[in-house]
Batch of 3 targets.
Target 1
Amino acid sequence: MTNTALITGSSRGLGLALARSLAGAGWNLVLTARDSLPLRAAADELGALALPGDVADPAHRRRLADAVPELDLLVNNASALGGIRPLDAFPLDTFRGLLETNVTAPLALVQETLPVLRARHGAIVNVTSDAATGSYAGWGGYGSTKAALEQLSNVLAAEEPDVAVWWVDPGEMNTAMLAEAVGAEEAAGAADPAKVAATLHDLVRSRPASGRVNLQ
């Protein structure tokens, strides 16, 4: 039986690195991200199905669910940063958008795919951040959405004993998102996403009990 994974935010960074790792192990992949050109390039490279779109769009989430009548792994990796700024100056419209992308969309996609994940005793990976638990000045908007995602994951794990649920802190990685936050020079010293993805793939393969996982 060939395993199938749906990975959001898979045109770059950790999502793309994990897709490459899983493809090397023979997984079928459905990839999605907002930027269609790099997403289609990744799909062509890996022999995957590309479905460009925004996970905050309910119609797009429905298309994703329809594309995976059999599903073994859902990876909620797509997220938005919203800028690094103090909470007293954080635009509320931006914060609402972060909640939609970083919290509502992963939960909604879980709801869309849970029936097939239950049937195949599948797994869910919700990618979080140390900003969910640390009091880092300027990171309150993003971090609070990741904290909400962690608690959703925690409760989901209790409610779904037949589905593995891991909320995964990948640590700092040399990605475009980190470079946006701290600058390219500092980001260049962070971990290679490919190495982090290999550790995440090992997690999926070994299937430990549901819970929070630090990958670095």
Target 2
Amino acid sequence: MLDVRRLRLLCDLDRLGTIAAVALARSYTPSAVSQQLAALEREAGVALLERSGRRVAFTAAGRVLATHAAGVLAALEQTEAALAAARTGPAGPLRIGAFPTAVRTLLPAALVALGRAYPALELMVTELDPADVPAALRERRLDVGLLNDYDAAPGEVHADLDSVPLLDEPVFLAVPAGTPCAGLRAAGDLDWILASAGTLCHEVTLRVCAAQGFTPRVRHRADDFATVLALVGAGQGVSLVPQLAVPAAPATVRLIPLALRRRTRIAYRRGAAAHPAISALIAALT
């Protein structure tokens, strides 16, 4: 019998490429990951990996098992969803990950509606950058998470995750009201307010500015758009903001529409769409 937890590690290795990366993602030691994969080889009765020093590569059998393992994990999600649906309705914990602006604007009404309709549902929200959501879903720290992508940074295709669209919105260049600026190309000489390195917003800003021929001159770093807009309104720099953040803009901010859009999707593990708690959240949000 193949151990499901070990199959997850094999899928992680297929996705991440190295045992060290799998260990980091799962908060294990590399030695522990290697031991679990060796145990999986014994269960399978065939070599799954070829080792050369610290590097590993899939054998033909390992590649076959990794491909089928993804389907096995999705089938388990479907089974759990079917069992949950056999109960009286959405109940138990539902762990939701969302970026700060969504927590402030999109989630509250949905949480209230779900709490009234399904009092046995235990709703738990964690603020999380969209870039961190896929890993949190795979590691089962989340059941549902909100993902973003932009025209300038299309979203990855995650074979082990599914999603449904939630929002498609324009993006603006936010500038202090008294600052003469006609658009992005003219913002190359201005100070910028950027998100933290490693976040999607940070990457998008760098790509958008690079397309205009400049690297933004960073003065402040902030991840919450309400904070960003407050800094812009105080004359501290310019920034990119999506329409969802616009209600937080003070009167001292001017918003310049850009030919750039942001899309938000509701993501979950493949096979989990029919879970009653997940489908109830999707219905409440959409």
Target 3
Amino acid sequence: MSETPQKQSRLAQALLVVGGLLALMWALEGLDTVTANALDNFGIEPRQLSDLPNILWAPLLHFGWPHLISNSIPFLVLGVITYLSGPVKWLVTTVISAIFSGLAAWLLSPIGTITAGVSGVIFGYLTYLLVRGIFSRKIGQILISLVVFVLYGSVLLGVLPGTPGVSWLAHLGGAVGGVIAAWLLHNRSRDARPQQMAY
């Protein structure tokens, strides 16, 4: 009986943390608007050593309101679902996805481009949720992955080149980061198996 209040508390915490991060993105976009897009300079420029630290905050920045609006609902929904796995798992998945997304953009994007936006992290959440059940072998997580795939599976097409002005490389890097996070956090099956000993 005590699980229901605990789950409600975790959901409230997830909405507060993920929603708060989203509110920060909106505030930064407002600041970017009134400063004539000055924050866009803190995106990731490929192969510029001085831009490597930008990998950490480029996910918080967007190129205009339409860009931010299109990312807001997927970030909130997938971020909250990921957070319900636990705050530490959410944090690890967020950081790994952001780093892999940013490194992919920094290493592989064409010179003369600049990358920003939270979509790489969104792809990380998506792949984390899709594959964690495979590593953990938990039926509940597998069922959640099926629901997530039905709702957001078509988004995975964003890891393919095609749409001008969209960094598919950052999407792909974030997706790889999500798989790595799921493997690191949920691959306990080998450790849990009883060791076979002959006698």
